[in-house]
Amino acid sequence: MKSLLGMSLSELQDIVAQHNMPKFTAKQLVDWLYRKRVTTFDEMTNLSKQTRQILAENYETGYRAFTDVQESRDGTKKYLFPAENGFVETAYIPEKERATLCVSCQVGCKMNCLFCQTGKQGFQGNLSAGDIINQILSLPEYETLSNFVFMGMGEPMDNYENIMRVLEIMTSDWGLAMSPTRITVSTAGVIPNMKRFINESKCNLAISLHSPFHDERAKIMPVEKTYPINEVIHAIRQHDWSGQRRVSFEYIVFKGLNDTPKHINELARQLGSLRCRVNLIRFHAIPNIDLQSPSMEDMVRFRDKLNDKGIIATIRASRGQDIDAACGLLSTKNSIKE
Question: How many other C-beta atoms are found inside a 10 Å radius of the C-beta of residue 148?
Fold first, then answer.
């Protein structure tokens, strides 16, 4: 049965017309689905009984409750949500001034980055727009959320159409009416859809960088062989980043591999004059991968040297590591339906 969750106002208008319902029904539906977050048609009390019956016979709202939750010592929570083709994990990260939700867009991932647990899972399928937005709307802490990062399981630019449908719902006046500056979408550098995103969205962009050198990056990120980082950065430079919209570079630091003086110099060369931020992340160990995590002292030293070169660099705090909710640790391999 088709789900309404994840549909835009225009798509719901088409459904309303198809069933000869009053035109205003579509606006009532988006209000119930995205503002009031009701999970059944019976709760849509300003719709006629006949309309609710037609909807119930032909559609489902699409809401799916989480099936498991783990809580970290630092307050981070990891939720397990069912989807059409498996399960996904979503990380809720509360802080003093804000609360961030790390959203997933695929079951598994095709990118197969060496350092990422999701990549080791392989790829099971794209999430629908409904399954993506369900992670947000079905979250018990929904009312506390202030920021959203599409940095969970999967490569957002590999599920572009559904990501854009979700962003439309999140930012439209008829939907959640959120500011695009509260939303960041990441990519490993899938250039064609990244260019589309830059032109078609007003949300922030984050690039998974991890090494400025082609040969080195290709060893840890196979996507480099198709979309080299220098071409990714060149494409980004074609856009004016002078307004509120931000571009940032995610940089997982591996001890002795990508934290040397030559990396600092090359990062400064490639990113110099580009209005951006580099977020430094300590590597979180995963099984059977021979990469080492740096000390915090090494992280601070690396950050300070980048700052000395004119690069705005910050160290992102590791959150939820004890429940495998930190960067690179999300995986539902053991939850996939056979």
Answer: 23
Choice among 60, 89, 109, 161 that is catalytic: 89
Give the domain 2-60 fold.
DNA polymerase; domain 1 (1.10.150)
Where exactly does CATH 3.20.20.70 map onto the chain? 68-335
- Alpha carbon distance 224, 258 (integer Å): 15
From the candidates 113, 116, 203, 327, which is the catalytic residue? Answer: 327
68-335: CATH, from 3.30.470.20, 3.40.50.1000, 1.10.10.1100, 3.20.20.70? 3.20.20.70
CB proximity list for 216: less than 8 A, separation 6 or greater: 257, 258
Structure-token match 């859809």, residue found: 193
Q: Where are the beta strands (DSSP E) in 119-171?
A: 123-126, 147-150
The answer to whether the CB of 246 falls within 8 A of the CB of 277 is: yes
Q: What mean pLDDT is predicted for residues 65-75?
A: 97
Strand partners, 208: 250
Do the strands 183-187 and 204-208 form a parallel or antiparallel pair, or are they unpaired?
parallel
Q: pTM score, two decimals?
A: 0.96
Going by their DSSP bridges, the two strands 68-71 and 59-60 should be labelled as: unpaired
Give the count of beta carbons closer than 10 Å to the beta carbon of residue 36: 9
Task: Let me know if 18 is exposed, middle or buried by CB neighbors in 10 A (0-12, 13-18, 19+).
Answer: exposed
150-172 pLDDT, tens digit each? 999 999 999 999 999 999 999 99
Q: Position of tokens 């989807």?
A: 83
89 included as an active-site residue: yes
CA distances (Å), 300 to each of 10, 14, 31, 149, 158, in order?
Answer: 50, 55, 47, 24, 34
Instruction: Give the model confidence (pLDDT) of 135-149 as tens digits.
Output: 999 999 999 999 999
Query: Is residue 121 classed as helix, strand or coil in its secondary structure?
Result: coil
Query: Does the annotation mark 327 as catalytic?
Result: yes
